[in-house]
Amino acid sequence: MANEPIDNAQTDTAVEELKDRILTALETVIDPELGIDIVNLGLIYGLNLDENGLCTIDMTLTTMGCPLTDVLTDSIHKALADVPEVKEVSVNLVWYPAWDTSKMSRYARIALGIR
Question: What is the spatial distance between Cα 32 and Cα 48, in angstroms, rounded to a whole number?
């Protein structure tokens, strides 16, 4: 029926569930130097999935000029290949705000021995 009202609560729930699945997939991407995933390290600053399946990831690195940029980007592409709604991935490296240890999850701080 063309005039049925859209259930925004159901749509919001579906969007949140999809975002959670994307973040869960990104948790499989491990920073090789630190041995912690990029989500818990706080490297993911934003993500967006458009109606065409383009998933745009805004992320930073622990240091500018990090030699692992290509490794992490390739790993992100591979991890998101398992999310059927994601048809294409674009990774944008951002440097603001600058990353610091306060962006890490409690899990990551404990694993790395940071208070």
Answer: 25
**Would you say residue 115 lies in a domain?**
no
Reported in sequence order, the residue ranges of the chain that DSSP labels E, i.e. its strands, are 44-49, 54-59, 88-93
Q: 41-71, pLDDT tens digit by residue?
A: 999 999 999 989 999 999 999 888 878 889 9
Rounded-to-10 torsion of CA 32, 98, 43, 46: -150
Confidence at residue 94, expressed as pLDDT on a 0 to 100 scale: 94
Amino acid (one-letter) located at 80 = L
Does residue 113 fall inside a structural domain? no
What does the block give as tokens for 62? 């622990």
Dig out the tokens for 92 from the structure. 């944008």
Q: Is 65 a member of any domain?
A: yes
pLDDT of residue 9: 55
Q: What is the mean pLDDT of residues 4-24?
A: 75
Q: What is the CATH number of the domain that holds 97?
A: 3.30.300.130
